[in-house]
Specification:
Elements lengths: L1 E8 L5 H7 L5 H9 L2 E9 L4 E8 L2 H5 L5 H10 L16 E3 L7
Antiparallel strand pairs: 1-3, 1-4, 2-3
Keywords: Carbohydrate metabolism, Cytoplasm, Isomerase, Rhamnose metabolism
EC number: 5.1.3.32
Enzyme class: isomerase
């Protein structure tokens, strides 16, 4: 199992909308994530900065890499660009910064 983590930012004042859009998450997106080997997925909000930290695990990196090609994932990214900071107005998904693991304790 490979652990992955990322940072994203909600647009100013839209963290509550971000939370709403995840509760509940689209059933077809949940199914697509699992189909691509994603598990143990959590997203945390830092209220003061409206920054979001995501953590998940993947079974197979190659299978996970194909997730972005799925129609459901692309629709979700488009939907979420309304509430997340993106590289530009034309971005198809939010600006996402992947993190490197420094320490892990089982």
């Amino acid at each position: 199992m490979k652990r992955k983590a990322f940072l994203i930012e909600s647009k100013p004042g839209l963290s509550e909308e971000y939370k709403k859009r995840h509760n509940p998450i689209w059933p077809e997106l949940k199914q697509e994530l699992k189909k691509h080997g994603v598990c143990n997925y959590s997203i945390f909000l830092h209220e003061n900065s409206e920054s979001l930290f995501g953590y998940f695990e993947v079974e197979d990196e190659a299978l996970f890499e194909k997730l972005g090609e799925s129609e459901v994932m692309q629709q979700w990214w488009g939907y979420m660009t309304e509430v997340l900071v993106c590289e530009s107005d034309q971005s198809l998904k939010a600006k996402e910064e992947m993190l490197s693991e420094v320490f892990h304790l089982d």
